[in-house]
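Onboarding guide, step 5: your first structure request.
Type a short instruction followed by the sequence, for example:

Predict the 3D structure of this protein.
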Amino acid sequence: MTIEARTQVSPTELEEITALASLVRQQDKVALKLVLDLVKNRSGDVVNDFLFYQDGQLIGYLGMYGFNKKEIEISGMVHPAHRRQGVFTRLYEAAKDECAARGYQNMLFIVEEDALPAEAFARKIGAAYAFSEYGMDLKGAGSAPQGGDVELVRAQTKEDAAVIAHLMAVGFGLSEADMRDNIANDLNNPNRQVYLGVVEGRQIAAISISLSEADTAFYYGFVVEPEQRGKGYGRYILWTLVNRLQAAGRSRHALEVATENRKALGLYQSIGFELTTAFGYYRLPL
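The system replies with structure tokens like these:
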């Protein structure tokens, strides 16, 4: 049994991770949050992926996703036939050492709703519940927006990344420096699109889309300037992009929203999104 720590996974390893994820999703009937387009496009600078092999077969995987410099998100899986054998514990220990060496303050474990063994593991290692997000999929047609017209401009430059980072800092209280780096990475990712919403020449909103799966559009990083909320701009932006990508052949449209963000939840439901699952986040101080 060996654990392979990777700064970048090979095409063969990515296929193995994808196949294991499909097996786990099918058997456990879970969504299993793995950001595989990020895994595919790692920078290669630091270790973020841990693969557990037994007799040449991938039986466990742990991926790390750092969106700021203080804490890093953790997601993973173990082959159903190899559980309760300490596989994920060993993956976690390897990841914890890496996180500590890089100076992270916290590990943030993603635990799907009703995944009781995963929740029990998080609590066993001392992680405490922090917050939850709903997973939503487009199920209905919703109603068309009335007014709120916004020009959608594809973000491409460092200057665009800086504008979006400022919007994220003002809108969500996030680190502007961290967001600038994240957006810059997204602009260089061929599986992602980033848009600015412009009203009367002013950049008032931003949204990103992951297109890593052939039939899916996943919307994230959606922010509207606080003083511009409630004017229909957010609804117009999401409605327009959904329809645009439906016309381009994307049949599944998905997003996530914090459970306490009732206004955003209502906006998404008005467009036709419905709740499909929930993810709890468990924080472990290092």
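Each response can be followed by summary notes, for example: The chain has two domains: 2-126, 138-277.
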